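User: tokens in, sequence out, please.
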């Protein structure tokens, strides 16, 4: 019989010594980043404008820093705690200070009568079905005089001959038609408003050709403008030298960060194979370039001041690459981190701690943009690097071969395994899927990425040498073709992608705790931690069992809020009956955008689809029956409003869809529904017109124009 000695597991001294108090002593960067990060997160979550903490945090920082050098050893613990608090409040205050909507200069804080805005196009235009999408930076209000203002706006330009000519850096005079971005409408739906708020955008605008006037061109950031021109030139080099088709799409994404050309099917294939990191220029690509540069310029270490020259050259090349790839957030993160590694390794003549390097680079990025902490790429990048740095050497020692090729294959496998272990919980939380054969695909993907990257650099260097560049271009085309075939083959394997996984924030943190304890157990081989691992895993499995049982008992009714479309869902256990308009079911992507997260979070396994436009006159399922325009859901009665129907029915819900309001007044004289549900396609002004004629016996009037309606039937 196994005895779980909790006191043995959590002996204070043993526990903290095991997790390495020396680690915190040797990595001061981590001690700085944690309270600052927590302060930023707290400020964003609370959404409070608290600039008043600024002076308080500065005083605390000064006092704690000064007192540290004049205090006793015992007092330093208290001073350390004060220092922690001061950094926390500093992060809290700084995040609030950088929130643009709190700024008195933000355009939303200005006088509403100022109808004209001077703006600058701050990003490349993305082509949509009926419009061009971009970001506008607001510079000035134009009224009786010009007044400086600030803010960013998500903008959509209607497609026409004028909007087609717009580009980054153009300065425009636009009508002030700003609309606040709406929040999510349906349960568990992606909160696009919150996502944009974290990117400092609270408003959007839809512009026709008569809503704006071009005032000037090329008035944007010259570095970014240069970056875009260079990307376009290098992209043309790929085309001119024989890179074509899907190979061009992948190569341009891998080398230049061009993701606009990627079609959804290709992206899905790479996601299923666990190779999406290849298509997004990030730490992998910057790391490859760093290794290439340090090897090319290694001879400089042998000459006088060679390390200084090497540092300057490597830093210049890294940041030039960042400019070349469009100065994306992921590349900026990676370039900043590797810059610190270069300076520490070469210029300071000592090896830097990668953990300190990561911490310092994270602090710098948070100072530049505190809201970056909520970007998925930021979280995945740092977690992946920590996982690789810590786990890869340990995993690599588990296998040794005298054959160099096998050692290389195992090293690549360990890199992939380390990154996947580290990012596994986050990936489940954000993407709700897991690529089963990632370790197989990465045996080909990572070496192929190395070769394509090196050849891409060679291609750009030999672009003027037609004979050489064409050969290099053909090699790139061939390697990427092999890469694509490997991805397609991996995707085609059975159970290549496990989908519809739902992980809450709590489950994500709990899973990380299990991974940390299990790995620590494996590496230290201490029985007390094995027992702790077993307890945590058992508790986690118990939570999953309880949750799955709760799903089998669920029973609720949901009216969805989908613009100009109708949707009703009856959920019982793991089964749903989904009744919607024909347009919604024909637009599969729109339907999944509105409902799929909700289905995943409630473990929906069986789905029955019915179209409200053509409901069968008399049909029955186990929990649903339709008779004419009346839907019977077990004990719930829902009547779809039709003025032509003459039967008298006191239903639980009267569902009024689309714009069919004629005859409602007469209908309500004879029918007394408990609840009236107005579809999201019905304008609020029409709803308000009918409110006075609705009898007081109606328990509730529900409008779906802004948000869903859900009722628990348990």
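Assistant: Sequence out:
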């Amino acid at each position: 019989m196994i005895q779980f000695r909790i006191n043995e597991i959590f002996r204070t001294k043993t526990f903290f010594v095991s997790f390495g108090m020396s680690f915190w002593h040797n990595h001061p960067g981590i001690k700085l980043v944690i309270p600052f990060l927590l302060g930023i997160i707290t400020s964003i979550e609370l959404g409070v404008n608290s600039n008043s903490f600024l002076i308080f945090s500065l005083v605390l920082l000064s006092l704690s820093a000064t007192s540290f050098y004049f205090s006793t050893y015992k007092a330093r613990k208290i001073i350390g705690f004060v220092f922690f608090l001061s950094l926390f409040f500093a992060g809290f205050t700084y995040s609030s200070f950088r929130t643009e909507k709190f700024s008195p200069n933000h355009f939303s804080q200005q006088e509403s009568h100022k109808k004209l805005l001077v703006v600058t196009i701050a990003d490349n235009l993305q082509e949509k079905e009926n419009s061009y999408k971009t970001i506008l930076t607001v510079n000035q209000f134009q009224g009786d005089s010009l007044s400086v203002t600030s803010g960013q706006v998500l903008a959509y330009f209607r497609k026409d001959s004028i909007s087609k000519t717009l580009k980054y850096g153009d300065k425009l005079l636009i009508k002030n038609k700003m609309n606040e971005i709406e929040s999510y409408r349906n349960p568990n739906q992606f909160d696009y408003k919150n996502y944009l708020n974290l990117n400092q955008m609270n408003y959007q605008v839809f512009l026709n050709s008569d809503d704006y006037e071009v005032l000037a061109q090329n008035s944007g950031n010259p570095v970014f403008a240069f970056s875009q021109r260079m990307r376009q030139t290098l992209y043309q080099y790929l085309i001119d030298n024989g890179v074509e088709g899907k190979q061009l799409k992948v190569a341009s994404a891998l080398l230049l960060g061009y993701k606009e050309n990627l079609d959804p099917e290709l992206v899905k294939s790479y996601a299923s194979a666990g190779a999406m990191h290849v298509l997004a220029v990030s730490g992998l690509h910057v790391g490859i370039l760093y290794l290439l540069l340090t090897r090319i310029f290694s001879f400089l270490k042998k000459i006088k001041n060679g390390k200084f020259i090497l540092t300057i050259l490597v830093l210049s090349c890294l940041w030039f690459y960042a400019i070349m790839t469009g100065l994306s957030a992921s590349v900026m993160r990676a370039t900043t981190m590797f810059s610190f590694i270069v300076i520490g390794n070469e210029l300071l003549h000592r090896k830097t701690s990668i953990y300190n390097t990561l911490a310092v680079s994270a602090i710098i990025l948070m100072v530049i943009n505190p809201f970056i902490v909520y970007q998925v790429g930021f979280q995945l990048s740092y977690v992946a690097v920590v996982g690789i740095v810590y786990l890869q050497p340990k995993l690599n020692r588990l296998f040794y071969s005298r054959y160099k090729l096998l050692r290389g294959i195992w090293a690549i496998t360990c890199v992939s395994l380390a990154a996947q272990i580290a990012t596994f919980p986050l990936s489940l939380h954000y993407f709700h899927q897991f690529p089963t054969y990632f370790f197989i695909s990465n045996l080909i993907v990572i070496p192929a990425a190395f070769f394509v990257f090196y050849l891409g650099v060679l291609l750009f260097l030999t672009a003027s040498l037609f004979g050489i560049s064409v050969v290099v271009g053909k090699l790139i085309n061939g390697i990427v073709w092999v890469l694509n075939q490997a991805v397609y083959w991996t995707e085609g394997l059975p159970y290549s992608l496990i989908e519809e996984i739902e992980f809450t924030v709590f489950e994500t943190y709990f899973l990380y705790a299990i991974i940390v304890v299990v790995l620590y157990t494996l590496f230290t081989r201490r029985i007390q931690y094995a027992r702790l691992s077993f307890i945590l895993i058992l508790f986690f499995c118990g939570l999953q069992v309880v949750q799955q049982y709760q799903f089998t008992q669920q029973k609720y009714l949901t009216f969805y809020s989908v613009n100009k479309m109708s949707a009703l869902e009856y959920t019982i256990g793991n089964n749903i009956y989904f009744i919607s308009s024909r347009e919604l079911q024909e637009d599969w992507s729109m339907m999944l955008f509105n409902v799929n997260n909700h289905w995943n979070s409630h473990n929906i396994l069986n789905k029955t689809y019915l179209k409200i436009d053509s409901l069968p006159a008399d049909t029955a399922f186990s929990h649903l029956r339709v008779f004419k325009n009346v839907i019977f859901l077990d004990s719930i009665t829902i009547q779809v409003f039709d003025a032509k129907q003459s039967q008298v029915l006191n239903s639980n819900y009267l569902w009024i869809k689309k714009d069919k309001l004629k005859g409602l007044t007469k209908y309500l004289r004879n029918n007394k529904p408990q609840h009236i549900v107005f579809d999201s396609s019905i304008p609020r002004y029409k709803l308000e017109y009918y409110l006075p004629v609705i009898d007081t016996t109606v328990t509730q009037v529900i409008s779906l124009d802004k948000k869903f309606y859900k009722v628990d039937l348990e």
